[in-house]
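In the design runs reported in the main text, the only information available to the sequence generator was the tokenized backbone. The following block is the verbatim input for one such run; it is reproduced so that readers can re-run the procedure and compare outputs position by position.
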């Protein structure tokens, strides 16, 4: 779902989603690696940052990187399937951009409300939201703004101009959090939490490998 939303935003050509804007900038600079591959490489960095912030290395974080690899390959596949999609007017571009953004927001909510491993980007948002007791949408807004700034910096560093970062990227950074807050109550009203994990699987995902390693040293 997220991969389709992201490629629709790419096709709209109004600015990348902040979820993948940094990966897109790197894919334009180092083209031997695909857009999808740069997506999971940048998310690997987020996994490392999450470990430092939370001071934990949960199995969930490792599984989330596995999800990121599948997600990156899905982006490349979606890009291939929609390769012939062309938009000829500005209203078409706006409509496809809005559709892609809504699909991304819905996908983020689904993952966040489930107990399954999520993408590292969403995982750090969820972990900070729970540990710091801050609303999910607010944490998402702050994280997206950081990603937007990094994309801006690297775009100018590599190209001395904007690549894939336009007004749509800023709109995505500012409005994705509010869109999640808007959709969340509607989703909660009609759909119960997914709850796909077994108790044992959940316990395994929450296992802190750093803690286990320290216990062995003692």
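Verbatim output:
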């Amino acid at each position: 779902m997220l991969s389709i939303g992201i490629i629709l935003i790419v096709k709209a050509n109004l600015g990348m989603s902040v979820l993948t804007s940094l990966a897109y900038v790197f894919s334009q600079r180092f083209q031997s690696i695909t857009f999808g591959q740069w997506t999971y490489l940048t998310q690997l960095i987020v996994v490392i940052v999450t470990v430092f912030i939370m001071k934990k290395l949960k199995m969930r974080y490792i599984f989330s990187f596995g999800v990121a690899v599948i997600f990156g390959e899905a982006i490349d596949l979606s890009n291939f399937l929609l390769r012939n999609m062309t938009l000829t007017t500005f209203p078409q571009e706006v409509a496809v951009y809005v559709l892609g953004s809504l699909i991304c927001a819905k996908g983020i909510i689904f993952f966040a409300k489930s107990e399954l491993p999520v993408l590292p980007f969403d995982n750090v948002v969820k972990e900070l939201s729970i540990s710091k007791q801050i609303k999910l949408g607010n944490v998402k807004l702050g994280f997206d703004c950081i990603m937007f700034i990094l994309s801006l910096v690297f775009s100018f560093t590599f190209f001395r101009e904007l690549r894939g970062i336009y007004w749509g990227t800023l709109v995505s950074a500012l409005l994705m959090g509010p869109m999640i807050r808007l959709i969340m109550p509607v989703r909660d009203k009609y759909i119960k939490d997914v709850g796909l994990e077994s108790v044992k699987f959940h316990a395994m995902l929450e296992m802190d490998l750093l803690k286990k390693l320290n216990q062995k040293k003692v």
